[in-house]
Sequence to fold (372 residues):
Amino acid sequence: MGDTAKTVARRQLPLRPAGPDTVAALLDWYDRERRDLPWRTRRGRRPDPYKVWLSEIMLQQTTVKAVIPFYERFLRLWPTVAALAAADLDDVLAAWAGLGYYSRARNLHKCAVAVVAGHGGQFPRTEKELSALPGIGPYTAAAIAAIAFGAPATPVDGNIERVVSRLFACRHPLPGAKREIKRLAETLTPQRRAGDFAQAMMDLGASLCSPKSPSCLMCPLQQDCHAHALGIAEQLPVKLAKPDRPVRYGIAFLALSEDGRVLLRKRPQAGLLGGMLEVPSTEWGDDWLPVDQALIAQPVRADWWSVPGVVNHTFTHFRLELMVMRAIVAPDASLTFWAAPERCRWVARRDLGSAALPSVMRKVIAHALKEQ
Fold:
């Protein structure tokens, strides 16, 4: 029978409730089509809980493509949880720079320390114990328990959420439907190969069951999918419209010393971009400060020049627009009180690539230096 005939025959199969046959069909598909990812082990080999945990933390709100080079670099630097626990937090933040959501990096280090100090360097096996560790929420605990230890746990990320909402034609809008989607997903979780099943759901959502234009004719679960039968797959999951992000404004001061160093400041550990390095700036407010008021916050007394243009950056809950001012200062220039000198350091331009600078601050520096 040709491919076309197979497709037609498949489309004519009657809808069946999602259940054990769904699980078997998905695992068969996964055994053939699974993504080759650096944190996955071959079938029959025991996964390394450290690698599973590290990948799951990095993958939160980040794409697989973006994570892979960071994951591989972390393993080169800290191949075990004990090595990561012994690392300096500043080094961890520097290695994380560019991956975003920097509280994850701080909690990553805290968690490694907790695993070594409280569990002898071995990750606990249960969701309850895993959830007690820093930075591990319900999803991550379930993912580690299932993937690393084979426990019948049910992680539900965005991909799995989409697959389940379509399988069961769940038309309640997110985020209110999360609890119901979790309950439905739990009805499918098998006692055996729970980790493979979770990863198969993730792979299906990342490939065939995509947010737009899902490839239903190629999907191994087409016969089980109520949304496909109703012709509403593309409409699910239903999401409430997000409010517009507010905009904040600030002025950053790029001080460049005559010997080629840039003034950077370490942000407080708590809060946004905690513990990372920044270009000193004014507070980020609801409107632009007049330049004469902004200059009160200058880190060094100097002749500041306004760099044309604005740096734009989008955070989860707001957008940021930064004007940048630049000045050339003497190597022994004194810092002002407003610079918070105890948190400042001069960094050679050649060392900026390895500094713990978040993406927004790399944008500021590139914008400030682009005309040099």
User: Anything to note?
Assistant: The longest strand covers residues 247-257. Residues 103-119 form the longest helix (17 residues).
